[in-house]
Design goal:
The complex is a heterodimer of chains A (283) and B (245). In chain A, 28% of the residues lie in helices and 22% in strands. Chain A is an alpha/beta fold and 283 residues long. In chain A, the strands form 2 sheets. In chain A, strands 1, 3, 4, 5, 6, 7, 9, 10 and 11 form a 9-stranded mixed beta sheet that branches. By secondary structure, chain B is an alpha+beta fold. Chain B is globular. In chain B, 42% of the residues are buried. Classes of the chains: A alpha/beta (283), B alpha+beta (245). The interface between A and B is medium-sized, with 10 and 23 residues.
Chain lengths: 283, 245
């Protein structure tokens, strides 16, 4: 193989199959380890008792007409400040999973402030579900997450909205993006979504990754109308300006549930990270 | 993302992305404003909030380079320290070599040359600071210069750098009057008024340094700044009363 610096590399051809016997040599111990890892990385949806009681069918499927998922600290903060601030939401479940970055394995409800995946249901309109996801879901767990969450919901008549954060450094564009435009929203929707999205569509070659991508893919495959709003921001961590960028989504949300008038600046600040008074990087 | 964003080489359309990103780093620093009068030069900065246990004398945005020159910077603190140290050494070296203090233009050019070198060197990133350099030459002429991460420098009558520089500069363009610059008080008031446009919670977040002809740099204390702020507020009220009548 040719290399830049002239050394010789021997390369294995992928056209020739190497011995597959290695897999057969796997003994029980290996199998057991493999099984243990799979079990450890399994995704569990914990629905709370009052919810499971109210559902009559054997396996727990919730009637849901609208599912709103927030992925990331700013999206979750936006929902907390603008939507969940009324007292009309009940916590109905959470997701417990384990991976190297996320250890939300407890079967007990997570403490507020901990990274977790929480589900809320509106008291007056119980078919509106909200999910706030601030913990990391690993790539191998994404399919399970989407599968199990949507498996718990009756898919008929379901509409999905996803709000997700992304660093603006990942936004690829030929234009210069200096200061003024950031943070901004871009949208993506599944084919079944017939309404107009509230912001410009995400341009090529930008892609979605992670949990938002898994959810949208699931919705596309299962022909569920879904729209995703990705907010590109230059701030690490929850920040009030970024949270306010999601405001266009309020027009759709206000059709579903009664929203409080705009929260005060103090209320917003509670959800934002305390600003870096101690940061001496810039003066 | 191509390689020309990671090191300082030209992109196909002629940009030096690292230099442009360095200018973004400058915008993360708090605002500094400089005004050049006839017989006085003034630098005002927005004091950033510091931790309770931190000694605020060590968080200085205004640094003296020599008896006749001082500067204010905005951007990366550590980069500023390095540049200021080199400038101070150069000021003394100049004095010992030619037995005269530096001119403001000379030391500005020196600082700018250092900054420019870092935009052309392999493996080094540009300095992430802009600075406003003020002072008097030995013939008594006042000067105000602004330097940028790219290594450019220009002389100004009044300018601002840092977080809300654009707003402050527009304010200065609107309110700068040549004839006011004869009065030391008016120069100081212009600098304070410009800062008050963008600083949160008024005078106690402002630090001001002045240098009058043939005098050394003086940092105004809180009482003096308060006096100017009160005078400015009174003037504003009177102007508004006049408008109404």
């Amino acid at each position: 193989m040719a290399t830049f610096f002239g050394e010789v590399l021997s390369v294995y051809s992928r056209a020739v199959e190497e011995d597959d016997d290695e897999l057969d040599d796997e003994n029980e111990e290996d199998e057991q380890i493999r099984r243990e890892i799979e079990e450890k990385r399994e995704v569990y949806i914990e629905w709370y008792p009052d919810v499971t009681q109210s559902v009559s069918s054997g396996n727990c499927t919730l009637q849901c007409s609208d599912l709103i998922i927030a992925v990331g600290p700013n999206a979750s903060g936006f929902l907390s400040a603008y939507v969940l601030n009324t007292e009309s939401w009940d916590a109905v479940g959470h997701v417990s999973l384990w991976n190297e970055k996320s250890r939300c394995t407890s079967r007990q409800p997570p403490l507020p402030g901990e990274p977790a995946c929480r589900f809320y249901r509106h008291r007056d309109n119980p078919s509106v579900l909200m999910c706030q996801s601030t913990c990391y879901v690993a790539e191998d767990q994404l399919f399970q997450w989407a599968d199990k969450v949507f498996g718990s919901l009756l898919n008929r008549g379901l509409n999905v909205m996803v709000l997700s954060d992304s660093p603006v450094a990942e936004y690829k564009t030929p234009d210069n993006l200096y200061g003024s435009a950031v943070p901004f929203l871009r949208s993506l929707k599944s084919s079944a979504f017939k309404d107009q999205a509230l912001c410009p569509a995400l341009e090529q070659p930008n892609i979605l990754t992670g949990l938002p991508a898994a959810v949208l893919s699931h919705c596309q495959v299962h022909r569920i109308p879904a729209v995703l709003y990705q907010c590109y921001t230059d701030v690490i961590g929850p920040d009030t300006v970024t949270m306010e960028t999601y405001k266009p989504a309020l027009t759709s949300l206000s059709k579903l549930v009664k929203l409080e008038p705009c929260p005060s600046a103090d209320a917003l600040r509670r959800f934002a990270k305390v600003s870096e008074a101690q940061s001496n990087l810039y003066t | 993302m191509s390689y020309d964003r990671a090191i300082t080489v030209f992109s196909p359309d002629g940009h030096l992305f690292q230099v442009e990103y360095a200018q973004e780093a400058v915008k993360k620093g708090s605002t500094a404003v400089g005004v050049r009068g006839k017989k006085i030069v003034v630098l005002g900065v927005e004091k950033k909030s510091i931790a309770k246990l931190q000694d605020d004398r060590t968080v200085r945005k205004i640094c003296a380079l020599d008896d006749n020159v001082f500067l204010a910077f905005a951007g990366l603190t550590a980069d500023a320290r390095v540049v200021v140290n080199r400038a101070r050494v150069e000021c003394q070296s100049h004095r010992l070599t030619v037995e005269d203090p530096v001119t403001v233009e000379y030391i500005t050019r020196f600082i700018s040359s250092i900054k420019q070198r870092y935009t052309q060197s392999n493996g080094r990133r540009p300095f992430g600071i802009s600075s406003l350099i003020v002072g008097f030459d030995f013939d008594g002429t006042p000067h105000l210069y602004q330097t940028e991460p790219s290594g450019t420098y220009h002389a100004w009558k009044a300018n601002a750098i840092g977080r809300s520089a654009k707003t402050v500069r527009e304010f200065l363009e609107k309110h700068y009057k040549e004839e006011d610059m004869e009065s030391d008080t008016e120069v100081i008031k212009l600098a304070i008024r410009a800062l008050l446009e963008v600083v949160q919670s008024g005078g106690k977040n402002i630090e001001l340094a002045i240098m009058k002809q043939d005098e050394s740099m003086k940092i105004l204390d809180q009482e003096e700044i308060k006096k100017y702020v009160t005078a400015i507020e009174n003037e504003k009220e009177e102007a508004e009363k006049k408008k109404k009548t």
